[in-house]
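Field: COMPLEX_INPUT
Field: COMPONENT_COUNT = two
Field: RESIDUE_TOTAL = 582
Field: MODE = joint
Values follow.
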Amino acid sequence: MRFMELANRNFKEMYRDPLSTGLVIGIPVGLLLILQTLSRFGSTWAPTYLAPGMVIFGFAMLTFSSGMILARDRESALLSRLLTAPLRANDFISAYSLPYIPVALIQIVVVFAIGGLLGLEIHGNMGLVFLVLFVMSIGYIGLGMILGALFSEKQVPIVWIAVNLLTIFGGAWFPLEEIGGVIQSTMNALPFAHALYAARDVMVQGVGFSNIATDFYWVLVYTLVFFTVGIFLFRRRMVE
Amino acid sequence: MTNPYSITRLKFVVVVKRNPNQYERGMHMTESTKGSGFAIQTFSISRKFGDLVAVDGIDLSVKEGELFSLLGPNGAGKTVTIKMLCCLLRPSSGTATIMGHDIRKDPIAVKEVIDVSPQETAIAEHLNARENLSLMGGIHGLEKEEVKKRSEELLEMMGLTNRAKEQVRKYSGGMKRRLSIAMALVSDPQVLFLDEPTLGLDPQSRRSIWEHITELKGKKTIVLTTHYLEEADSLADRIAIIDEGKIVALGTPQELKESVSDMQVMVVKAKNLTSATIEGLREIYTEVKEIEDGIEIRAKEVSFSEVVDYLRPKGIDIESTSQKQVTLDDVFLRLTGKELRE
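Field: COMPLEX_OUTPUT
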């Protein structure tokens, strides 16, 4: 488990930058507090509906953070030095992804806890909601690996804006059905909207796994694809 | 640039071939090099970037425990060679073995026995010195206790113990470089690559790092790339002079200097030298180099009286003349027709 040493370093690198870690958790919570004040205009602004969206929006920030640390190391001589150690591409991707998993868990717990104080209700299985969101968080971290492997430290923020837009238009802030058309079709081809459909269906309608299986597998397959592509791209970067 | 010393260069090649460590071109590439006494062997290794040939068919053999230096100007191909040997760059053709492991076929096995101090200071800025060393020891598979013990030894050796708990982003350039070298040593590699370890450092820090490298001599196989003559001269057991991706000379520092023993270098100090006077002198001695407050004349034979007799009538106020020892710079100049510091 040599890669755990590198994962440990990446974790330290993250928590020793408290501002960015604070923002990763603080922004979705802040948005939940602000947007839920609009709940008198409709149920789509109620905490029950908003919370999964805010969690997913927070995950997009994990893409940024994980992509940036990889891009920064890749551009500096540090990653060159690390690449001379007997580690493989999947070790590197694991080491750069693992530190973000606890952050994703904290995001879910904090947003739902705040949501609970604001009147959030879960009619279905909370574990199922948690599972869907957790798998999606891994997908977002995998997306960060792709960004970090492909782009420079200056390019990552620009590409990340696109990830953010996909998250917002995927239904994080408002229902995708209200947009419709090509955007809805496009978003349905991506995993973000499916994670939201699944989480909201369990929370609002109280459905079981069989009802959200398609959405869940959609998210799961995309997560695996993101990581496979990330490892492939990183492997190509290991020896030029 | 044409090389006015091509005959001498041929003579030098003969000297190099007498060296028993010189790799014979005829050796079969797949021949096992394990137990051969060579830590590193390269077999016509080349690397191209588009049309640019950065490394052009280099054949080298480095003995176990040897401190081998690659000396050459910026862009000569030193770092590209090191990167290929460390499995960071794929050779365009040819290959190399490190402790018997082929860099193309078994990069993980190669990485098990090497460590590198890259040209740039490669450290994790938000970690302290101990954490940086622990990171490198850990990813090379060392036990925690062993890492701890070696880290303390290395921190002491590099004079970093007192500030070992500070995040290294607060360190000076010299301290960062010392830590960077310590990070390459923590895994106790069999083969250590030091890529320009003193680049950009002040003379005091440079000397301190030289002392540390000297302590490692004979204990490890070390490949040191540098464009500092005195660094290669004082540290290396053998030096390969590299220019435009090719090895142009190989030998001990003494052998290299002896290869130009038929050359004299005369230094003339005079403040009122004019361009016309220097040009005139070049008609007698083709190699006249301007230096601060004077000139250096290189030739097989430099006549003191001839130089003085030429300069005095022209009103040149000669402050001093002296004979200079041949340096590796002179070797490089003779072999390539250009100066190492260009």
